Amino acid sequence: MKNKKITKTNAMRMLDKQKCSYTVHEYAWSEDHLDALSVLEKMSQDAGAVYKTIVAVGDKTGVVVGVIPAQNELDLKAFAKVSSNKRIEMLPLKDLEATTGYIRGGCSPIGMKKAFPTYLSHHILDEKSVLVSGGKRGTQIELSPADLMIAAHAKVEEITKEKDE
């Protein structure tokens, strides 16, 4: 990939504007393997370092965004509580692009169409750097947790649970 020009995404432009340091990683993707664990495998990264972006809708606040480790699940009850909602549901996939400006497999917590309340899993505090979607399929952005908090205007909360075995 040497000398290959990377097309900037909204997420990258936002990071540049905020003078946040980041590294772009590209990988081959397929329509059948867009989940965070597949990205983790392709990136050959530590499981804790790859984070996925989840978009949900709260009964009081509307759209809310969660950013959690690839191997974890969103705890809907905890997420509802920290976001001042009684109930939270996942945003229907058909509404993802219209709501965020991003498509499945390329949804970054940075640079969405609107600034939605964003919550990062408390696990992020254990990481030196994390990878999140770069805003298009096949692209991950590596940055520090502090820069992600700044760029996504995010709060750190306990919003995850371990995946059921």
Features:
5 helices; single chain; 165 residues; globular; YbaK protein; alpha+beta
Describe this structure in words.
This protein is of the alpha+beta class. 22% of the residues lie in helices and 28% in strands. The protein contains five helices and ten strands. A five-stranded mixed sheet has the order 5-2-3-6-9. A three-stranded antiparallel sheet has the order 1-8-7. A hairpin with a 5-residue loop joins strand 7 (130-133) and strand 8 (139-143). 35% of the residues are buried.
Please state the second-level CATH architecture: Alpha-Beta Complex
Q: How far is the first residue's CA from the last residue's CA?
A: 37 Å
Question: Average pLDDT across residues?
Answer: 88
**Integer-rounded radius of gyration:** 15 Å
Q: Please report which band the strand proportion falls in: under 5%, 5-15%, 15-25%, 25-35%, 35-45% or over 45%.
A: 25-35%
- Please give the largest β-sheet: 5 strands, mixed
* Fraction of residues in helix: 10-25%
Kindly identify the CATH topology.
YbaK protein
The helix tally amounts to: 5
Topology:
Layout: H1 10-17, E1 23-26, H2 36-43, E2 51-58, E3 62-69, E4 72-74, H3 76-82, E5 88-90, H4 96-100, E6 118-121, E7 130-133, E8 139-143, H5 145-152, E9 154-157, E10 160-162
Parallel strand pairs: 3-6, 6-9
Antiparallel strand pairs: 1-8, 2-3, 2-5, 4-10, 7-8
In a nutshell, what does this entry contain?
It contains five helices and ten strands.
